[in-house]
Design a protein that fits this description.
The radius of gyration is 16 Å and the shape is globular. It is built from one helix and ten strands. It is an alpha+beta fold. Strand 1 and strand 2 form a beta hairpin. The strands form three sheets. It has a four-stranded antiparallel β-sheet, with no helix packed on it. A four-stranded antiparallel β-sheet has the order 7-8-9-10, with no helix packed on it. The protein has a domain at about 40-145.
Amino acid sequence: MLNCMNLKKLCNLLFSFALFSLLSTFLTHKVFASTGTFSYTGNMNNSRSIHTETLLQNGKVLIVGGDKYYGAAELYDSTTGTFSLSGNLVNSIGDGSTATLLQNGKVLITGGINSSNIATPIAEVYDPINNSFSQVGNMNYGREFHT
């Protein structure tokens, strides 16, 4: 029987597969605009789905969370084509979080689902200069897959 909760999970799962396919292509291939071709690049340290990716001002891509990788983060460097483990988040943030590049170059990461499958109100900031995360407080309510 398909109830509202199961329908939501099904929609999230379908969205995740579509997004994962798109994002994994983006992150494991380099695109050369001048020739319109793709080439393989390095692999992520952890396969992920429903994670966030944020292009930093230094040209690297911050990858946070994702299904099964609560609190884990890594960086992609397009100049070397490699992924490296980054500092871990202060809290356990998995899939369904958002990451927003701020004007000062830091990244605000909010919400998401924790390892107990509960939407969290957590907010943290990533500092690319120090390669570190710090908690900045909580939102009033837990959120997942928000914008």
